[in-house]
User: What shape does this take?
Amino acid sequence: MSYKAEYIWIDGQEPTAKLRSKGKIVPDGEEPPIWGFDGSSTSQAPGEASDCVLNPVFVCPDPVRGGNNKLVMCEVLLTDMTPHPSNTRAACAAADEKYRSFDTWFGIEQEYTFFKGARPLGFPENGFPPPQGGYYCGVGIDEVFGRPVVEEHMDACLTAGLEISGINGEVMPGQWEFQIGPLATPAVGDHLWLARWLLYRISEEHEITATLDPKPVRGDWNGAGAHHNFSTNKMRDSYDACVAAAEALGANHDAHIVNYGHRIEERLTGLHETCAYTEFRYGVSDRGASVRIPWQVARDGKGYIEDRRPNANVDPYVATRLIVETVCGAASA
Ligand code: ADP
Ligand code: MN
Ligand code: MN
Ligand code: MN
Assistant: This one.
């Protein structure tokens, strides 16, 4: 007997990479082996030297196919088994290794938008729906669009063993959020990329699409972000360490902004619960800040901080690496 293993990887498309997958039949009792693919079709290799290597980094049950079948999250290697230039996970794992003594945790809030054809789900064929106000965490068919897909996706994540911690309806019609974590990095990136793949895959069954576009509708409609909630062992013990982390992020603002997702300037305008990308500000409970310190953290005098800047289309391997390097680097200096 054998099982089906769906190998999932991140391609080389720029400026925003996307997910690819293909299936392999593996004999029962065997782990999914190293595999390969045609990198010339994924912006990862020239045609005359097209082979790239798929190295499994996280294997879990496949909630779509069920049975013994598996999902296999992979990193891409060159044929000499070194990381491919498009492989952002390797540097993330190296940063985690270097700062292992900080025991970092991440909880990532992934916002996204369902589309039916060229319009967000819930938008009428012509014109616009009533303005924002009632949609966030709403109930009823005048406010909620796509709930069956959201429920199925949450169940699929649980069946796969992903660390999903919640879901909610968002501010714009057809816009939703799920949260992954808290987890260490690069595991949080592995789980988030797989949860994204499941979202796209399950949306197929419902004949809609899901997009991580950071500003799916221009004008007075919220963009889509991926807030990164972050703590070290010291932050979970001390408020001063939380403030020091926010200060360190502020001192390195520009380097983070350019790596927090394509078209970040369209989303971080200073409106719609964002701080302009040209500024850095942190504050308690402040949803107009770049970094928010949750009120419970200020009350308890310990906990975590929320980096509100990353776009929905951010690569979590890149953002979590940068946060670890900036915050743990400053604390080690
Ligand atoms: P918001 O109020 O910003 O919408 P959410 O409830 O959507 O917040 O997400 C908060 C996230 O923070 C969750 O993913 C949760 O797992 C994560 N989190 C909670 N405590 C910590 C911590 N100490 N370190 C890192 N992440 C944390
Ligand atoms: Mn949230
Ligand atoms: Mn949100
Ligand atoms: Mn948030």
Notes: The helical segments are 89-98, 147-160, 187-205, 239-251, 253-257, 264-267, 295-300, 316-332. The two ends are 55 Å apart (CA to CA). The chain has a mean pLDDT of 97. Residues 105-107, 109, 165, 179, 181-182, 227, 229-231, 236, 303-304, 306 surround adenosine-5'-diphosphate (ligand 1) (CB under 6 Å).
